[in-house]
Amino acid sequence: MKSLITGGSGILGTELKKFFLDSLFPSHSELDITNHEMVFDYFSKNEFDSIIHTAAMTNVRQCESEKKLAWNTNVIGTKNLFDAATKFRPNSKFIYVSTACVFDGHVGMYKESSIPHPENFYALTKLIGEQQIKNLKNYLIIRTNFVGRKKWSYPKAFVDRFGTYLFADQVALGINDIIKENTQGIVHIVGNKKISMFELAGLTTPDIKPMRLEDYSGPNLTIDMSLDSEVWKKYDIEQNGDSK
Predict the structure, then answer these.
(1) Which residues, 6+ apart, have CB-to-CB distance to 35 below 8 Å?
(2) pTM greater than the 0.85 cutoff
(3) Could you tell me if residue 132 is left (phi over 0), alpha (psi between -120 and 50 degrees) or otherwise beta?
(4) What is the separation, in whole angstroms, between the first and last Cα of the chain?
(5) How confident is the model at residue 224 (pLDDT cuts 50, 70, 90)?
(6) Is there a catalytic annotation at residue 122?
(7) pLDDT digit string (tens) for 65-84?
(8) Residue spans per domain, the chain
(9) pLDDT by residue (tens digit) across 12-70?
(10) Which of 42, 96, 110, 122 is catalytic?
(11) Which CATH number fits domain 3-153+164-193: 3.40.50.1110, 3.40.50.720, 1.10.760.10, 3.20.20.450?
């Protein structure tokens, strides 16, 4: 299957390249998803069987301070792809990569059937994207929470924020697995245990320093981002892409 993969230079897009070798990974200059005309032109000139949409503005603080840019990228960008898929690829499968942050984070272990309740503007834009994609006849919404398998980007990590985190290579494996099964609807790709962000950071950065939410100032955060799944297997974060 030949896919169009947006966000190909991102953390997840880079890992997806290892599984979808013959797919299209346009750069931003080749496909700016916020540009309606460019999206339609690209769809009209290129052949592919599915769309894997990973491109997004994901920094919570930036989304809050630059709402227009976040809206244009996460909402309008997704709408442009939706419109182009409807016109040029009505039978293609649309895979939308969403986030655990669509939930409020008050209780954790959210299932595919749990009711979303965004805590910040970033999460709101991703949830609106989900609602758009649900209007397609062949869609797959993947909610997950991942980081790159590299040194932690910050000097500290929260000991009191939690998730069923995975590394990006494991999420790419999960997406590949799910597509092979021709699964539809909403699927959570999750790790097999809930850990703190500090524990996650420690897997790649043993000297990471702890911090608590009381030390943080900024937009509301999703505190417990842990996901459960009613429909799919779980992955072991301590393994290199192995499932369990």
Answers:
(1) 80
(2) yes
(3) alpha
(4) 26
(5) very high
(6) yes
(7) 999 999 999 999 999 999 99
(8) 3-153+164-193
(9) 999 999 999 999 999 999 999 999 999 999 999 999 999 999 999 999 999 999 999 99
(10) 122
(11) 3.40.50.720
Say if residues 225 and 166 touch (Cβ distance below 8 Å).
no
Structure-token match 């409020």, residue found? 104
Instruction: Output the 3-class SS for the chain.
Output: CCEEEECCCCHHHHHHCCCCCCCECCCCCCCCCCCHHHHHHHHHHCCCCEEEECCCCCCHHHHHHCHHHHHHHHHHHHHHHHHHHHHHCCCCEEEEEEEHHHCCCCCCCECCCCCCCCCCHHHHHHHHHHHHHCCCCCEEEEEECEECCCCCCCCEEECCCEECCEEHHHHHHHHHHHHHCCCCEEEECCECCCEEHHHHHHHHCCCCEEECHHHCCCCCCCCECCECCCCCCCECCCCCCCEC
Q: Which amino acid is at 30?
A: E
Identity at 142, one-letter amino acid code:
I
